[in-house]
Structure formats: structure tokens, C-alpha cells
Amino acid sequence: MKYTQLGRSGLLVSKLAFGAMTFGSGNIPSVYKVGQDHAQELVNHALAAGINFFDTANAYADGLSEEILGRLLGSRRKEVVIATKAGMRMGPELVQAGLSRKHLFDACEASLIRLGTDYIDLYIVHKTDPFTPLEETLEALNDLVRQGKVRYIGYSNWPAWLAAQAVQMQRERGWAPFINGQMYYSLIGRDIEHDTVPFMQNGGVGLTVWGPLAGGFLSGKYTRHHLIDPEHRLSGFDFLPHDKEWGFKVMDTVKDIAHTHDATPAQVSLAWLLAQPHVSSVLVGSSKLSQLEDNLNASGLQLTVQEIATLDELTRPAPLYPNWFATKLLDVQAAQALDVR
């Protein structure tokens, strides 16, 4: 297992992280389906493989994911980094959702109890909240850090402009900074390369990836003919938008590369992500031990420069304005003189 610093911090995390979203049971049975006994097997295997970074959220299976993960890590709590999230609706009352001071304090206390710990290593705001001033959210997060209930903070699913505004405010106020952004990123979902990745690189914010296999699509187990199979996750939780026909064309190339390495399509898809210099850690979740083992083996797969370039070109997102304008009007003479590509 390889390790890295998360953003501009001293927090050392494994390049592959364990996502516990599948733990528990609930209203999305194709996602929440791993009970405690099987979860123990998965966590033990992840620990044995060198994973020290475990991710969950209060909204996963209505808190059951946190409870199960906390129990299973048990005496090994201080050996690992636990990330959890807040912001999703957790009850019927108006105040039981969002990023207000009240809800963040309440959610943090509840997560600490469910996880069976007195501190959270990385506390992540799960989504944006248009109904709460940004300053209120950031001050509340800073206070949780100062109280010792939270060690580091991050965000998930925020647009680059909002994250940049937040980081600037944190610097100006001397508040605890975001060290992490957890974003959806995959071979067939590269939107964050437009603005989010450049911001993170400039701002010293580490990128952790959720959905690296696009909800299982990049595992190679789906075909054009059985996407609606009720046993498959995409039949009940097709959450990530992409052109399926284009996706299958991408998979043809992924499978060819996998065959060359005697690897699986999932391993190639994960190896491509791990080869990206802007990626800190990739979350791998699974409901079966065989899936976890397959994903873990991606850490040892080295794609060639040409294979990475082929996948880059095949899946490169169309440039957006004003990005394409800046590229077209780049001063070529200056770029050549500075050896900028």
C-alpha cells in the first residue's frame, strides 16, 4: 500500500481508502446490504492490506454505517483515519439537515456516539447548503476543531467557486482550513478537471475520489443487454449520469488494456485514477470480499505511459468556455520559452 499527505497537512492516508457506504440496511437495498459479520471480514481484509483511511457518513443507512464501522474498528481506532460527513437530512424536522451551526453541532455529537469515539479525524460537509451563510458553516467547523471533536475538515460535492471562497475566508479569519475535497471522479466522469482540480492544486486541497467505478459500470460486469438485471446495483441506484453507449465503447478499450496486463477492467479504471498526480486517495467500497480483493490489487498495477495517454484521449471532457478561449489564445512564444505544455 502507498500513502500520501492529504492536502497541505501532516495527515498520512493510504492511496486506497475503504468506503463503508454499503454497511447496514435501508431504503436503497442495492446499496445498503452488508451486515456486521460480513463487514467485519471486509474491514479486517482492508486493514491487513495496509488501508488506514475509512470513510462513512451519517446519512448512510440512517447512521447504521457509522455504528457498524465504529464497532468494527474498535481497539484499532487510533491506528486509522476516520472520515464522516454531515449535511444530508437526518429527520423530519426543518433543523435536521443542512450546514447551519445548530445542525453541524448536533450531527457531530450524534456521529461521535455512533462511531464510539471522542474525535473525528476528518469531518466533511456532504453537500452545499444555499440556506445557510457560508461564514456560519465555516465558523461552526472551526469551533468543532478548536473543541477537539474534529481534527481536520473537508467538503464534498461543492463547486470550485464556492470552495475557493471558503478557503479564502478561512485564511483571512485564521480558521481551520479545508484540507480535503471529496468529489466524484472516474474515467467516464471527468467534469472536475475543468475547474475543481486546478483550484485544488493551487489551494493545497487534497482530492479524494468517490464513485471511481461509476457505480460499478467500470467494473466491466455490465453489458448492453442486462443493465436492468435486478441483482445489479445500477438497476436500483443509477445515480451517476453518463451516456451508456459511449461508456460501453470506453469499456471496450479498458478491457483490451486489462487483457494485456492479465488484470480486470476495475483494476485498470482504478489504476488510471491512481496515476493522476492530483488524486490523493481513491475510495473503494464493496459488498463482497472478492470485489475488495480485486480493487486492492489495482494498487500494484502500473499502466504504461501510452495506455494512460490512450485512456486520457478517449475520455477527455470537452473544454468549457472560458477555458477553451484561454487555451486558444495562449502565448505560444512565451510557452515555448518557458517549456510549458
pLDDT < 50 stretches: none
| Major β-sheet strand ordering | 3-4-5-6-7-8-9-10
Q: For this structure, what is the CATH homologous superfamily?
A: NADP-dependent oxidoreductase domain
The overall number of domains is 1
Topology as a string of helices (H) and strands (E): EEEHEHEHEHEHEHEHHHEHHHH
**Based on DSSP secondary structure assignment, what is the total number of beta strands?**
10
Q: Fraction of residues in helices? A: 25-40%
Helix/strand/pairing class, anyone?
A: alpha/beta
Global outline: globular
In round numbers, the mean pLDDT is 93
* Major sheet attributes: 8 strands, parallel, barrel
Work out the helix count: 13
Domain NADP-dependent oxidoreductase: 15-314
EC number: 1.1.-.-
Enzyme class: oxidoreductase
GO cellular component, one term: cytosol
Task: Give a short overview.
With 341 residues, the protein is of the alpha/beta class. The protein has 13 helices and ten strands.
Walkthrough of the structure:
GO terms for molecular function: oxidoreductase activity. The model has no long low-confidence stretch (mean pLDDT 93). With 341 residues, the chain is an alpha/beta fold. The chain contains 13 helices and 10 strands. A hairpin with a 6-residue loop joins strand 1 (3-5) and strand 2. The strands form 2 sheets. An 8-stranded parallel beta barrel has the order 3-4-5-6-7-8-9-10, surrounded by 6 helices. A two-stranded antiparallel ribbon has the order 1-2. The chain has one domain: NADP-dependent oxidoreductase domain (TIM Barrel, Alpha-Beta Barrel), CATH 3.20.20. The longest helix is centred in the C-terminal third of the chain and has 18 residues, at 244-261. Helix content is 40%, strand content 15%.
